[in-house]
Amino acid sequence: MRLSFSSASSDPDGSLLSPWALRLRQRFNLPLLVRWNGGKSLRLGEFEQPRVTVDVRDAAGAAALLSPSLDNLGQAYVEGHIDVTGTVQDVMDVAHRLAEAGSQMDTSGRWVRRIVHQLADASSHSKKVDRESIHYHYDVSNAFYAEWLDPAMVYSCAYFEHGDETLAEAQTRKIDHILTKLRIEPGQRLLDVGCGWGALVLRAAERFGARCVGITLSQNQADLANERVRAAGLQDRIEIRLQDYRDVKETFDRISSVGMFEHVGLKNLAGYFRILHDLLVPGGWALNHGITSSDPQNGETRHGGGRFIDRYVFPNGELPHIGTVLTTMQEGGLEAIDAENLRRHYARTLRCWSDAFEAKAAHLKTLVDNKTWRIWRMYLVGSQWAFENDDIALFQVLCHRAGQDATGLPWSRRWMYVGEPGRTNN
Question: Residue ranges of the DUF7884 domain (predicted)?
Fold first, then answer.
């Protein structure tokens, strides 16, 4: 969008933003105060005290407000064109209300963006590109992640059986829930695709007696995971590799893939599941735990939130609808046995992460630059909002090779809960 001024000094009193503020105030009652470069304040609602204050620093910041998608607002904040005051929860609530107002005034680009998204080139997920994308996201620093994750550094949706567990308890329950669904037995070979900092393979080896291979494309994750394996004395049962899933050649009794397939790409999903199929021994089981889109057409999240994440957080990430997951899984030669939606669980997980991030804000700013800090601050709370409001979901899908005899598969789902530590058969 072009504005009729080129610098902050061109509009010292904010008069060019006044008509915009008036239009919004007539249609929406937002607890938002906008201040223009130290000039006059613009109120966008009736309130005694604003919940959020936006300080516009330059013309780019004003442009973001005049076209307030989540992508535009997020980019303006990350790049320092605007500053915000208020709790991060209030900031995200007001941002979504602004973006909703903006979408009601201009929906012309929505279908164009969907078409572009659907025509994404599968070659954008080459091994080199995927390795670079993983490095960008996961190799910020282990110390940075350790400040707001649980002590085991589990960076995926937790499982809150009752809703009152601590984050650490819920993450352990999630790992046990996955391993129990897989019916992992002592001595079986388990492949963990996208093993993170090693929490799942450590638990699988120590608690369930499995022999594990964990693979990741992040050097930082591999280094720390190996340290943890050595510290636990489990080198004889766990191998951590810096390896692409497409380069694994041996077969396994069980496969877990947690928070990884979001990086595969929509056009590559059937091939991804075919690789899991080929890596399974006959009679083996796999579980895919990943984020899904709530758009049946696999479109991006509302109001440009997906574009912000692609630009700053997960380059080349693509989210399929659960229907697409099940279809491509079958195309890849796998039969879905069970699917469980953990959307509420991920919303709570992200609230825990965001609260920890806010509580550690001062220290986190010493670990990363201001831009990185702002990206992650908005990413965590924005993702929380998306899960809470059904823009995205999280599904665990248990599967095995299609067409094989299901002998040995229990008749009910009770086994998924009976075998977990701390659970009873009731």
Answer: 24-100
Report which listed range, 11-20, 98-107, 171-180, is most confident: 171-180
- Residue 60 belongs to some domain of the structure: yes
Mean pLDDT taken over the chain: 87
Co-location of 164 and 28 in the same domain: no
Q: Supply the pTM of this predicted model.
A: 0.88
Give the strand order in the sheet containing 52-56.
41-43, 32-36, 52-56, 82-85
CATH code, domain with 328: 3.40.50.150
Cα–Cα distance between 398 and 174 in angstroms, integer? 14
pLDDT at 304: 79
Ranking 98-107, 308-317, 368-377 by mean pLDDT, the lowest is 98-107
- Cα–Cα distance for residue pair 153/426, rounded to 1 Å: 32
pLDDT per residue over 300-311, tens digit each?
777 778 888 888
- What distances in angstroms separate CA 199 from CA 195, 222, 317, 319, 345, one per listed residue? 8, 12, 23, 24, 19
Q: Are residues 90 and 143 in the same domain?
A: no
Burial of 274 by CB count in 10 Å (0-12 exposed, 13-18 middle, 19+ buried)? middle
Q: Residue 286: beta bridge partners?
A: 255, 399
Question: How is residue 248 written in tokens?
Answer: 């694994």
Whole-angstrom distance, CA of residue 339 vs CA of residue 289 = 10
Q: Give the pLDDT of residue 403.
A: 93
Domain carrying residue 367: 122-418
Question: Concatenated DSSP letters for 2-43?
Answer: --S-SSGGGSTT-TTTHHHHHHHHHH----EEEEETTS-EEE
